[in-house]
Amino acid sequence: MYSSNVLDNIGNISYRLAMFDSILGLVILFAAALAVIWLAGGWLLVHAMMHPDRKTYGVVLARDGITDPKELNLLAEEVTFKLPDGTQSPGWIIEGAQLDGPTIVMTHGWTNSRYGSLYKAQRLVQWASRLFNRHRL
Fold it and tell me: Which residues pair with residue 104 across a beta bridge?
C-alpha cells in the first residue's frame, strides 16, 4: 500500500491541477472579453469615421446657427442646381463685392452642409464677384 505522504502528494497535485484549470478558464474568459471589446470598439470607430453625423438644417437650428445668407447680410438668391444625373441640389448664388473678381464655387466638407459653408462665404465675398454654394446630396 501507499504511504500517507504519497497519498497527500497525489491529493495536492490534483488540487493544484483543479486550481490551474479554474484560473486558466478565468484567463481565457478575460482574454475573450477583451477581444470582443477590442473588436467592437474597432468596428464602432470605423463606422463612425465612414458614416459621420452630418450638420443638417435641424442640427444648425438646434445650435442657433445661421440658416440663411441674409442673416449674415449677404445678397443671395436661392436656386436649385440640376445635375447631369437628373438629381437636383439646392444652393445659393451669393453676390460678391468685386465686380471683376472671380466666381467661387463652394462645396462643404464630409460632415458639413451648405449652412456651415455660410461662414466661409462671408469671408470670401469681399474678393469674389459671385459665390455658388450648393448642397451635396
Answer: 131
Contact (CB, 8 A) for 76 and 95: yes
Task: Judge contact between 66 and 59, C-beta under 8 A.
Answer: no
Can you give the residue ranges of every domain in the chain?
1-51, 57-134
Alpha helices per DSSP H over the chain: 4-50, 57-62, 118-124
Q: Compute the CA torsion angle 6, 9, 11, 15 (nearest 10 deg).
A: -170
Q: Is the dihedral of CA 97, 99, 100, 105 positive or negative?
A: positive
pLDDT in tens, 18-50: 667 778 888 899 999 999 999 999 999 999 888
How many CB atoms sit inside 10 A of residue 133's CB?
25
As a whole number of angstroms, the distance between CA 115 and CA 92 comes to 10
pTM: 0.59
Distance CA 102, CA 18 (A): 81
How far is CA 84 from each of CA 88, 89, 90, 93, rounded to the nearest angstrom? 9, 11, 14, 19
Q: Find the radius of gyration of the CA atoms of the chain.
A: 33
